[in-house]
Amino acid sequence: MHFSSLLHHLLAGVLAAALVAAASSPRLSPAYTDTFRFPLPIPPVKVPLTTYTDPSTGVPIDFYSITITPFSKSFFPGLSPASLVGYDGQFPGPLFRIQRGRQTLIRFVNSGARVASVHLHGSFTRAPWDGWTADLLQPGEFKDYYYPNTAGGRTLWYHDHAEGVTTLNAYAGQVGMYIIVDEGVEARLGLPKGRFDVPLILSSYFFTKDGGISDESMERTSTYGDTFTVNGQILPHLEVEPRKYRFRLLDAAVSRTFNLTLMDGTQALPFWVIASDGGFRDTPVKTTSLMISMAERWEIIIDFAGLSGKNLTLAHTTIFADTDYVGSDQVMQFRVGPRVTDNSNNGPLPAKLVEIDFPTDAPKVERTLNFVRNIGQPWTINGKPWMDPMSRVIAKPQLGTVEKYTFRGTGGWSHPVHLHLVDMQLLSRMVGNPNQKPGRKYLEEYEKGAIKDVALLGDNEMVTVLAKFVPYQGVYMIHCHNMVHEDFSMMAAFNITSLENFGYGNVTGGLEDPMDPRFSAKSFEGTDIEQIQSVVLPYYSSLNAYPEPQQLLQHIDDYWHSSTAIKLYYYDILRLRFHRNPKLRVVQHGHLQDVDHRSQHQHAVLEHDGNSRTDWYSRANVDSNPAIDHKRPLRKGKQPAEL
Prior knowledge:
- This protein is mainly beta.
- Helix content is 14%, strand content 35%.
């Protein structure tokens, strides 16, 4: 290991130790005496009820139905079962494994007692089906959610997103994993598959003395929990063979960040991070620890070869502002068997996984978002609470543009920041306030080069990201994924291109409105599969909601590329003029583009000492001379036809 890398790991360890709570608090839940006794449950794979194939495009739409149902589940042997409300009466909900390019229409029926809303986290979903927090299913209602599944292979999850009760619904069990599989990429990489590809859904709870889950309805800061579950089982074990396994980790806890290590006694064993929220990394990263905050997904490879007969512990160390409880230092156990029964997809890990297309365009706008709560006030973004509808939309990026965001956490809390629809690239992490206790000053190695939809802000940290606003227009959400913070107003929205006369619930004629009444919840009278096949699925297919993704993205890029050269030159000239004459002021700017896209003109209305003029510059000048002298001034007073 290079000295610089060794130093980084040593400093990281020191800082991680500094971030651990100073003293453990007494356990609030009953004592759990069956540590590692019960096997890890694997959620059942959901099966479609019918399929419709669009005759013109050949794209299949699979129809599923899930019922939000109250049920009972025993967590503590000898104590009463807990009352939960889960998808299909399960915790976690059923597992979806979807082939990339197969669309899905999932009917969620609310048979519970509280309102619900469903968000498929990590999906490129049009706004009416994205799970806008006020787009509610009342008890006795259903809503059909329409998903494209066009993203590259990645691990997503679905969970409740209802305004003000997300904590209660998710805590009661409304979480599940949703996997998009790209068979071509999987076949090329040869990674573990089948029973060697294992979902691990982490949660954290407080339990009552009778064995039920705690009532968190009055909580306003965080629900950390002192008892950890994996796939709904407290402290389970998994029997593994001495070979490679792929684990898909999801932190579905309300407020708990997990800091994981794989321990053989007192020795931390290495594993490899291969994928994040947005799918595969470009290369695997070897590590001995992994931080995973609420809503994050990380995929890892553990090689149990040479460990036959050993029991390994997936351990946890409390970090950030999370409360540390006595005994909350273990998550699950791996029991390594004596032999390999199936050696398929057990070869060397590829040095190169995929090529990642990170944004290369310069950010059009830079924004700073402060995640803050003042004493006695709600959780806010830039001081604006979600409860104020006039301040919800904080950004209006144009479709296809790149923006740079700096997320800044304050007040001694950690915040996992989630953007709906779009992927992010993490650029840096710095200390937020040098006068407060130290935060991290670096990205973790596995965060570098990862595609993310959640950016973790530890205590007193700020993270800078690039986000490209594709692939659709519409109004989407950004929020802290500590669900308590989210419920109590730490949410905002961004509008990818403006909606004319947009209002909550009005029909715009497109698919930009998250409250579009055409797709709102309706009273449930039963599901007629014949009607689904002959009427409902053809209707959704006819919307053309999800054009061929690569063509769509290429069209967006082509549009911006056709005007990039002129815009770069234009802004360079303006910067030069401001440098030469600080009194020069831009009072208006924009660009005109002919319908055939072959002729463009950039203009700026400039003002100096009360006098104004319009400057124009033709794209033709740029195209004819790639090596432009950026000191050459614009031609003055010319209209496009004269150039």
